[in-house]
Amino acid sequence: MVDCLIRLMLDDRNLKINYLATWNEGDFDDVCRKRRIEIIG
Predict the structure, then answer these.
(1) For the residues of the chain, what is the DSSP string, one character each?
(2) With contact defined as beta carbons under 8 Å apart, do 35 and 10 qualify?
(3) Phi, psi torsion values for 40, nearest 5 degrees
(4) Residue 38: which of 18, 8, 16, 12 has the closest Cα?
(5) Which residues constitute the domain of residue 24?
(6) Which residue in 4, 16, 27, 40 has its CB near the most CB atoms, within 10 A?
(7) Is pLDDT at 41 greater than 90 in this prediction?
């Protein structure tokens, strides 16, 4: 459930997010690539 909430936040254009620190890169790769958010693993 937490991953779903994070994905919704990452996809929200109203939030300015530049980086995401996670060890689970595969779950967020698509949405981060779309928004050009760098994943720090």
Answers:
(1) -HHHHHHHHHH-TTS---EEE-S-GGGTHHHHHHHTPEEE-
(2) yes
(3) -105, 115
(4) 18
(5) 2-40
(6) 27
(7) no
Candidates 35, 6, 9; CA nearest to 23 is 6
User: By the 8 A CB rule, do 10 and 20 touch?
Assistant: yes
Structural contact between residues 28 and 20, judged by C-beta atoms closer than 8 angstroms: yes
Rounded to an integer, the average pLDDT of 18-36 is 96
* Mean pLDDT over the full length of the chain: 96
Q: Which two tokens stand for residue 26?
A: 């595969």
C-alpha to C-alpha distance for 41 and 25, rounded to whole angstroms = 7
- In the chain, the number of structural domains is 1
